[in-house]
Design a protein that fits this description.
The complex is a heterodimer. Chain A is of the alpha/beta class. Helices cover 53% and strands 15% of the residues of chain A. Chain A has helices at residues 2-26, 28-31, 53-66, 86-101, 114-124, 145-152, 170-175, 183-202, 209-227, 229-247, 260-308, 312-327, 354-363, 406-472, 479-510, 522-532, 534-537, 557-574, 628-638, and strands spanning 43-47, 71-75, 105-107, 129-134, 157-162, 330-336, 342-344, 367-368, 380-385, 390-397, 517-520, 542-546, 553-556, 581-588, 591-598, 642-650, 653-664. In chain A, the strands form four sheets. Chain A has a five-stranded parallel sheet with strand order 3-2-1-4-5, with helices on one face. In chain A, β4, α6 (145-152) and β5 form a beta-alpha-beta unit. Chain A starts with a helix and ends in a 21-residue tail after the last strand. In chain B, 41% of the residues lie in helices and 23% in strands. Chain B has helices at residues 13-25, 36-46, 62-70, 86-95, 107-122, 157-168, 176-183, 192-206; strands at residues 5-9, 29-33, 50-54, 56-57, 60-61, 77-81, 99-102, 131-134, 137-140, 145-148, 151-153, 173-175, 216-219, 223-226. Chain B has a five-stranded parallel sheet, sandwiched between helices. A four-stranded antiparallel sheet of chain B has the order 8-9-10-11, with helices on one face. In chain B, α2 packs parallel to α3 (62-70) and α6 (157-168) crosses α8. Chains A and B meet through α14, α15, β11, α16 and α18 of A and α1, α5, α6, α8 and β13 of B.
């Protein structure tokens, strides 16, 4: 009961949650200020740069699995973090990837501040619990992320995961490429300050000192806009120094006559630094936004083109074009065929190491450069994961020998999944097409068979009938004429049997026979078969020995009658007149064994199998080669049974041929309808 | 009394000719039609005692003709069909046909079927007979008893109903569906093994050799036919 109640409550919570999420999204603008409503627990793992991310992700994943909660993982991509060294970002990216593999929804939102971006994301998705890393030995004076978050979100739960101590300096030495110094920027900063100094020097008599300060500040803003943070800082410092040296009396000296100027310097320096930083930050954000927009536009364009693609080659070409344009990367697309062999699509511009590609495909994991596996390989291999199965591998060879940034990596992942979905779509288009073609050809074959059977049988039916009618004409035919009419009739009938057999064989072989199986007593089928070949049996003695334990069998009565008729007529054809025949049946384990015996010369030794071939005859004397036994076997097999022929050996000599049919017993219905009948009350005395 | 009038609806001229020759030689009055439309007109104007109808007509399905005909006439209908078209036969029988012949068929078979149906048709007023007798078996409809060579036979209620229903429609082919509906009512159209099981039991009680029945004949994949005598 408690478990049921828990289930019901969870279900309700889920429902409320979904409805509320919809509402929140609908009222997006206004909802951001809304507090989180804890309708259903959901976790948000906040990944920072560096090696702590993985620990956070693993803890969150464990928590989420324990209480069966949905969870998200976020790495905030703020401009402040673009100064983070690439190795740390790479680690964050890996942690994010891990989160994705563990079932999280992963996002990298942007924002001015990490805390704000986190809160914004949590609010948007109504996530009530944040999981963060806590590092020991944190610098005391800085407000920790947790505290900042706590200030912003008094309504959220905060879980802290202890992180291992940093191994200082190791990473930087290990795999950070030396930062390229921005000499032109710094030179420009110096030049700008010098220019302002010159200009102000020329106008010294005209301009107030305050305005000269403004000119220096302008220079700082300009430098910040064009060259970013470092040069702006240099320009700010240089500006204050030059202002002091050239303009503040006593001029041409760093001495200051009026102490008040110290305040001017301080304010000027602070303002210049702040403006410089802000401007540079703005510029970086604008830059990032433009890049992002460009990438998104590229993705849109690719998605649109992919939606029109009808062949794998087109997909490969579109993908290659996109990667070239967005990342300047060369690429190759390998598509798996039905046998899971990777085939290189034409238009590839990168060399592909097939071994790495195969590994990537077999494991469904990225391999090659920038990953944990086969990192020395030149190219990065991404598996193309579509909803149904892996569709292939995308090999990317980035232009510069650099590590891919987080955004680029995510762009690649998006690109790979777009390609995968397109390939899957194309695969199913092909499946649908081939199915249509197959159905069409089947329909054609059926109508052809029907037409042939009608066209062949109708004249035969007319011949049989007309031969009979001839015998009825007045005056009555003379003896010999009547015999001829009879011969025409017999030949036509034989022809008709042959045509029927051939058409049946055609039907059975083309697989277009639909069995009309029903549960029935074997006796009934044997009875109708005996009745059907009564004319050809010519009064032969046919013993029927069906064990009473034989259950109902699941048979197509008409087809199975055809099997028995064929066997009986064969027996008549190949055995001396008036020798007896026997039909017997008995249950045998999970099967039922039906035998048809004769007392003729038996099957030619060593050719017991050959008689089932089409157009085989038992002996040379027999008149018409046929498909009779081949049809019998095909019908029995269609019923899930087996059929073979053998010779009955009695006292060391052949006593006759025996054909054995083994049919699965199946599960006959137990109910015989005795209770279900609608009977009047007084049906019986 | 006039000779029985028989209408042949068949598009194949040679088969039509053979059927006409055969029936005319027996002394029946024969009319012909080569299409469904023509067949309906002839049936309406000539008022035949019987129809011989091909199912595959150029301008439509013979089954439609049977349905139309059954709206105003109970005259027997014998359907001509190709082998391995059990579904067509069953549909025709369910629509109201009385018997079928598989092409190719001989004059003897045709005449035997025609005679049986006409006899049934002419005896239709003589129903209400208190007894049905065939072979050694006598079914007393008043006393609801069955005897075999004078000895009382014990039949279950279902077997009795099955036997009486078949005997009252002697000479007609009854499909599994028709028998199911007569005895089990609607809603059992998938349970054709009901009929088969009880039919097998009935045969064991009535037929001398159940695997070679003389009265309760099986039409493989289609249904059953009751025959009074050989």
């Amino acid at each position: 009961m408690i478990a049921l109640r828990e289930l019901a409550l969870r279900r309700t919570a889920d429902r409320v949650d979904t409805q509320m999420q919809d509402w929140r999204r609908a009222a997006q603008g206004g909802a951001l200020g809304q507090p989180v409503w804890a309708t259903r627990d959901a976790l948000l793992a906040c990944i920072g740069p560096g090696e702590g991310g993985e620990a956070v992700v693993r803890s969150t994943a464990r928590l989420a699995t324990q209480s069966d909660l949905p969870w998200h993982a976020v790495f905030v991509d703020a401009p402040a973090q673009q100064r983070v060294d690439p190795a740390a970002r790479q680690q964050a990216l890996r942690a994010l990837k891990l989160a994705q593999d563990l079932g999280a929804m992963t996002v990298t939102p942007t924002g001015i501040g990490v805390a704000q971006a986190l809160v914004r994301y949590a609010r948007e998705h109504n996530l009530s619990r944040l999981v963060l890393g806590r590092r020991q030995g944190r610098r005391r004076w800085r407000l920790s992320m947790t505290e900042r978050l706590a200030d912003l979100t008094p309504d959220m739960d905060m879980l802290q995961v202890p992180l291992p101590k940093k191994a200082p300096g190791r990473q930087r030495a290990a795999d950070t490429p030396a930062k390229k110094p921005h000499w032109p920027g710094y030179a420009a900063a110096v030049a700008a300050c010098a220019l302002v100094a010159l200009l102000a020097g020329a106008l010294h008599g005209v301009l107030e000192l305050t305005n000269i300060v403004m000119l220096f500040l302008l220079a700082v803003v300009g430098v910040a806009l064009l060259y970013g943070r470092g040069p702006a800082t240099l320009a700010a410092l240089l500006g204050v120094a030059m202002f002091d040296f050239f303009f503040v009396p006593p001029r041409m000296s760093f001495n200051v006559s009026d102490v008040q100027y110290l305040i001017t310097f301080a304010v000027m320096l602070v303002v210049a630094l702040v403006i410089g930083q802000l401007t540079a930050g703005l510029r970086a954000q604008a830059h990032a936004a433009t890049e992002r927009e460009g990438r998104v536009r590229g993705l849109y364009q690719m998605a649109r083109e992919l939606s029109a693609a009808l062949a794998a080659e087109q997909v490969a070409e579109i993908g290659a074009r996109f990667l070239q344009a967005e990342l300047g990367a060369r690429s190759a697309l390998l598509v798996a065929d039905d046998a899971n062999r990777l085939r290189l699509q034409p238009g590839a511009s990168a060399e592909v190491d097939m071994a790495v590609a195969q590994w990537c495909f077999d494991r469904g994991e990225a391999a090659g450069r920038g990953t944990d596996t086969l990192a020395p390989s030149a190219a990065l291999m991404l598996p193309l994961k579509a909803p149904m199965r892996l569709r292939g591998v995308l090999a990317v060879l980035p232009a510069q020998a650099m590590l891919l940034t987080l955004e680029q990596r995510q762009l690649l992942d998006t690109c790979a999944s777009l390609l995968a979905i397109s390939l899957e779509r194309i695969h199913y288009i092909q499946v649908a097409q081939s199915t249509t073609v197959q159905m069409e050809s089947e329909r054609l074959r059926n109508s052809l068979l029907a037409a042939i059977s009608h066209d062949l049988r109708t004249p035969l039916a007319a011949m049989v009938g007309l031969a009979d009618a001839l015998a009825l004409t007045q005056p009555a035919l003379a003896g010999e004429q009547a015999e001829i009419a009879q011969a025409i009739r017999a030949s036509s009938l034989r022809m008709s049997v042959l045509v029927n057999n051939l058409l049946d064989m055609g039907r059975l072989e083309s697989g277009s026979v639909q069995l009309r199986r029903q549960w029935q007593p074997l006796e009934e089928v044997v009875g109708s078969a005996l009745a059907a070949c009564a004319p050809s049996l010519q009064g032969r003695d046919v013993a029927v020995r069906l064990a009473p334990e034989v259950p109902l069998l699941h048979l197509d009565a008409a087809l199975f009658e055809c099997v028995l008729v064929n066997l009986l007529e064969n027996a008549v054809k190949y055995t001396p007149p008036a020798t007896p025949l026997q039909i017997a049946a008995e249950p045998q384990g999970e099967a039922v064994r039906i035998t048809v015996d004769d007392e003729g010369p038996g099957l030619p030794p060593g050719r017991e199998e050959a008689v089932f071939e089409k157009f085989e005859r038992g002996s040379k004397e027999a008149a018409a080669p046929g498909v009779g036994l081949a049809i019998c076997r095909a019908i029995v097999q269609a019923h899930g049974g087996r059929m073979h022929g053998e010779n009955r050996i009695v006292d060391g000599r052949v006593a006759g041929a025996r054909f054995v049919i083994t049919l699965p017993r199946g599960e006959p219905p137990q109910d015989d309808g005795s209770q279900a009948a609608v009977l009047p009350d007084n049906a019986m005395p | 009394m006039n000779e029985p009038r028989i209408l042949i609806v068949e598009d194949e001229a040679n088969i039509r000719r053979f059927v006409r020759l055969t029936l005319a030689a027996e002394g029946y009055e024969v009319f012909e039609a080569a299409s469904l439309e023509r067949g309906l007109i002839e049936a309406g104007t000539r008022r035949p005692d019987m129809l011989v109808l091909d199912l595959g007509l150029p301008d439509g399905d013979g089954i439609d003709l049977i349905r139309d005909l059954r709206a105003w006439s109970q005259a027997p209908v014998i359907v001509l069909s190709a082998r391995s078209r059990e579904d067509d036969k069953i549909a025709a029988l369910d629509a109201g046909a009385d018997d079928y012949l598989v092409k190719p068929f001989g004059a003897g078979e045709l005449l035997a079927r025609v005679r049986a149906q006409l006899r049934r048709w002419q005896d239709r007023t003589a129903d209400g007979a208190p007894q049905i007798a065939f072979g050694d078996v006598v079914v007393d409809l008043v006393k609801r008893s069955v005897t075999h060579a004078g000895d009382a036979l014990h039949l279950t209620p279902i077997e009795y109903r099955l036997l009486v229903h078949l005997a009252q429609h002697g000479g007609r082919v009854l499909t599994h569906l028709q028998l199911l509906q007569a005895i089990w009512g609607p809603g059992h159209s998938e349970d054709s093994h009901y009929v088969r099981v009880h039919m097998a039991n009935l045969r064991k009680k009535i037929e001398a050799d159940p695997s070679r029945p003389r009265h309760l004949l099986t039409e493989a994949g289609v249904g059953y036919r009751f025959v009074m005598s050989e």
